[in-house]
Amino acid sequence: MPELPEVETIRRQLEPLVRDAVIVAADSHWSDKFTPALDAVGSTITGIARRGKYLLFQLDDDHELVAHLGMTGSFHLETGNGSDPSCAAHGKHTRAVWAFDDGRHLVFDDTRRFGRLRVVPKGDYGDIATLHQMGPEPLDGDFTGASLHAAIVGRSRSIKTQLLSQRPVAGVGNIYADEALFLAGIDPRARRVGRERCDRLADSVKQVLATGIDNGGTTLRDYVNAEGDEGQNQHALLVYGRGGEPCTNCAEPLSTIVIDARTTTFCRRCQKR
DNA sequence: CCAGCAGCCTGAAAGC
DNA sequence: TGCTTTCAGGCTGCTG
């Protein structure tokens, strides 16, 4: 499940490969989640930005191709496929293909079809609610304990649910939320988190995301980067996916519960409500 | 405005 | 062995 470190890894690999590419044709799966791929035909890619878990392909006509990978989305480049960009000519789960003027194809695969594509005027995210209301980038400096506290104070949902909402901070998903809450010593069910604990949590969020990027992302099931390789951060996880195993801090068996239909693993002794 | 939740998806794994 | 059920979860859109 691509979260910020996985999306950033893909962005870094892809950007130098697609810069200045001219999109001459495209094809997509029939779902209206993917048909906007065709709106990018005729444009030149000038770079790739990222906001939270969204990839933002910059187009030369003052538009952006906004891509969300959902649960199982991945991008890769293929060479030597001629000028036919049909999805059927690629993989079973190919949802979009963009043909470049040099003969290469940018391919978007997404087994479970939770991903989404849109072409919008640059910066115009009014129709993409989560992106429109996205909180600060965690590794850019605007995200602090103070900003986190300001974003959650007065709200009644659990701290984990709020992290996943993308509003207090951009790019945190289920894996890195569990990891950050463990490092900060905060129970994921906590509904009141004061300023001091927000300081610790902000630091933990930055730490787990930066480590995730350094390790090339986390591969538990489907994630592969733009070169088709798995990440290595799964070996650095302290709680996610380790229910029943001893806490690395106190040896108490880690608990697994469900919060908002998401598997949540934490230590009942080390993490406080 | 906010909280809460169903629905979207497929394939692997578990259950019978 | 083979069929059925369960599980994974980010985001959207609806309801109260």
Give a quick summary of the entry:
By secondary structure, the chain is of the alpha+beta class.
How would you characterize the overall build of this protein?
The chain is an alpha+beta fold. It folds into 2 domains: 4-132, MutM-like, N-terminal (N-terminal domain of MutM-like DNA repair proteins, Alpha-Beta Barrel); 145-266, Helicase, Ruva Protein, domain 3 (Orthogonal Bundle). Helices cover 23% and strands 22% of the residues. It has 6 helices and 10 strands; from the N terminus they run H-E-E-E-E-E-E-E-E-H-H-H-H-H-E-E. It has helices spanning 4-18, 129-132, 145-152, 159-164, 174-184, 195-214, and strands at 23-28, 45-51, 54-59, 63-68, 73-78, 94-100, 105-110, 116-121, 255-259, 262-266. The strands form 3 sheets. It has a 4-stranded antiparallel beta sheet with strand order 1-6-7-5, with helices on one face. The two termini are 27 Å apart. It binds a DNA duplex (16 and 16 nucleotides) through loops.
**What's the helical proportion of residues?**
10-25%
CATH secondary-structure class of the largest domain: Alpha Beta
- The averaged pLDDT comes out at 93
CATH architecture of the largest domain: Alpha-Beta Barrel
Layout of SSEs?
Layout: H1 4-18, E1 23-28, E2 45-51, E3 54-59, E4 63-68, E5 73-78, E6 94-100, E7 105-110, E8 116-121, H2 129-132, H3 145-152, H4 159-164, H5 174-184, H6 195-214, E9 255-259, E10 262-266
Antiparallel strand pairs: 1-6, 2-3, 3-4, 4-8, 5-7, 6-7, 9-10
This protein binds a DNA duplex (16 and 16 nucleotides) through loops.
